[in-house]
Amino acid sequence: MAGYLVECVPNVSEGRRQDVLDQIQAAIQEVKGVAVLDRHADPIHNRAVFTFAGEIGAVAEAAFRLIREAAATIDLRTHRGVHPRIGAADVVPFVPIGETPMAVCVELARRVGRRVGAELDLPVFLYGEAAQDPSRKRLADVRRGEYEGLVQSIVDDALRRPDFGPSRLGPAGATAIGARPFLVAYNVNLRTPELATATAIARAIRESSGGLPAVQARGFATADPAIQQVSTNVLDTARTPLHVLFAAIEREASARGATVVGSELVGLVPTAALADVARDALRFEHLDADATIESRLLSRTFERWRG
Amino acid sequence: MAGYLVECVPNVSEGRRQDVLDQIQAAIQEVKGVAVLDRHADPIHNRAVFTFAGEIGAVAEAAFRLIREAAATIDLRTHRGVHPRIGAADVVPFVPIGETPMAVCVELARRVGRRVGAELDLPVFLYGEAAQDPSRKRLADVRRGEYEGLVQSIVDDALRRPDFGPSRLGPAGATAIGARPFLVAYNVNLRTPELATATAIARAIRESSGGLPAVQARGFATADPAIQQVSTNVLDTARTPLHVLFAAIEREASARGATVVGSELVGLVPTAALADVARDALRFEHLDADATIESRLLSRTFERWRG
User: Fold this and answer.
1) Would you list the DSSP string of B264-300?
2) Catalytic: A83?
3) Predicted TM-score of the model (pTM)
4) What ipTM did this prediction achieve?
């Protein structure tokens, strides 16, 4: 499995103490072959998100060290914030990059989970694609009751027994480790003064109300009163490619007398998501994410450094 | 300028002796931070093309070593092949990757050219975007008369004086060093039994006969007698993006009663070329090549290893 590139997007329950976040980031960066792409701390949520990537071996090691460092520096008994959480290293998802199969990330989540349970004596719940039980697929279900509720239920309730580690909660709480596709944040702007139009379109296209698979959506006002926004998260662009989503929003807008003025990506997108759009627009007979010079150079660079 | 990623696609006048090509490749790979992406040797042309990439400092060093190795192992006095050439390391173009500006490659070409002239005592002609005179922009003009003709004209003709190095030709000949955009090889397949239709469309769309800027095109038959192909090289997808070219071919085909069945990329494409297509299809308000996880990881990886 060497050579597969993956991303890891851990959420830790600390968004205020910069020195603690620096220590956690240092624990990630100690590992050769890992690149930290982003760090975003939210003091209201009292939570931070790191984004790092590299080959699976390096990413597994960095994820383990991050969890160890977070567990040593964050105490859930005194942690307050508006975001749901069950532990210091609250959620640790692995995300395939480029041609990496999802199965690689599932295996990685289970391997890291087992090690965290055994070496750090922390309870680990496997979620997302790595879940070993359908009831743990959704993160919200794993996190139900949060840290405070889980203290008792992890002991009493056989259904809340962790996949790895002890059935008891210490000050560092528990960690949800999982695998999921790359999440794309994508917004479409509409010319209409009516927020209700954007809200209605969001409802029409999102999976939860019978719309497109893997799509979450909400309507938002923008700074310009003439423009409203349909803001989406696409949890898996292989299930709903961006051009399919765009066309659906355009159709729904047109049916309501609004026009699409443009769209935007928030943050990063996998090359494969752009390749899907280009494949449709140009009727490519074949085109994979590894067809870009950047993707190819990325893989060869890691191969080269691996030696 | 550190941190800029560039590709180098040197053509050497050797396509038969694998041991010589191995030595030349080894000279490139000696340089840390350079990844060889491809090597293609053609025994009929008696010529080989290497593709390698990395940050400018590493690529400059690897290009220099490649030229030195080629000059030491290839003798133009006995070289025969059907492809035009003036030297052992015949053509050395630098190509921007990702967000790298063309000016960086122009500067790189001139820097490497100066060093090759001074340290290897080889004549160097700057071409493409790095040309210091408009008459040297086109590679065909720089290579006019080939090695055999240049032996005399480099001495006699003031207009053939090299940009760097001596005005005389040794056994290793001269080297054209330049900068150019990434070349994309892109084919569109048509349902028509008539090769003449593909040929006429190629003529209508290519720059040389008044068509789209930076587009070269020819008509080809395919293995399927019902399908003909318009085969193109796009020398600069910023000037003619792929969706513009595709739409033009579709229009021309439709005017001639043929239909487009699909298209294909040959080899690699810059992420920016796919991003252009996606930007048009989804009316993105902004989207740069650095918006993909792969491009971002690539830059951060190089930053990281640079330390």
Assistant:
1) EEES-B-HHHHHHHHHHHTTBS---GGGBHHHHHHHH
2) yes
3) 0.82
4) 0.81
